């Protein structure tokens, strides 16, 4: 009997592992630790949780990057018919760079203790922030793929380094309590 079994692609497995990691990052126990540290004015545990969520999103973005880049190329081809292919690709890359820079520009928000406590106390806002962080990570990962193609894993390292630098910077004067 001939089986039509096809093993799952590594990208699909990576994406699914990213979703599992996201579920762990937003689990009740992890959130409880973050909330308690926020109430004491300690920012690093929550910033670490936010970095974890962001990085799982970046991994998801790297996994779906080829699909999203292909979709972006088809979209620009359909909507920018008067523009040559090189210019369309240049615009896609410019938008990708903008997504990465925007994501990095707001990283400092996650080391403000009062903002974290406010988010913790408003459950719908907490869920929204977690989902937005994951989505930002996914856009960032796909953007790294659009810019670096096969070397896009370097974007994961840059994102991780940026995240850790924010946590260890002077902005997080409270740090660990």
Describe the structure.
By secondary structure, the protein is mainly alpha-helical. Helix content is 77%, strand content 0%. The protein is built from 7 helices and no strands. The protein has helices spanning 10-25, 28-39, 44-79, 85-105, 113-121, 123-148, 153-168. It starts with 9 loop residues before the first helix and ends in a 9-residue tail after the last helix. The mean pLDDT is 87.
The proportion of residues in beta strands is under 5%
Number of helices: 7
Order of helices and strands: HHHHHHH
Question: What is the percent of helical residues?
Answer: over 70%
Which class of secondary structure composition applies to the elements?
mainly alpha
Indicate the mean pLDDT. Answer: 87
Q: How far apart are the termini? A: 63 Å
- What form results from the Cα inertia axes? globular
The value of Rg in angstroms is 19 Å
Low-confidence stretches: none
Number of beta strands: 0
Main beta sheet: strand number and arrangement?
A: none
